[in-house]
Amino acid sequence: xxxxxxxxxxxxxxxxxxxxxxxxxxxAEMGFHPGDYITVSxxxxxxxxxxxxxxxxxxxxxS
Length: 63
Hints:
two-stranded antiparallel ribbon; mainly beta; 1 helix; 63 residues
């Protein structure tokens, strides 16, 4: 399992609200790509990020 050490920042929109930003080629190496949908769950100081739907699998909305 790959591990990254990141910092929790203040949100740009509202001071005092924690913000975590993930970016980098390592995300693509782990199977995450722009437009993909993810599910984030957390418990006991642990976050889990899971791919829930690939962007290429999303069907356009029909009107």
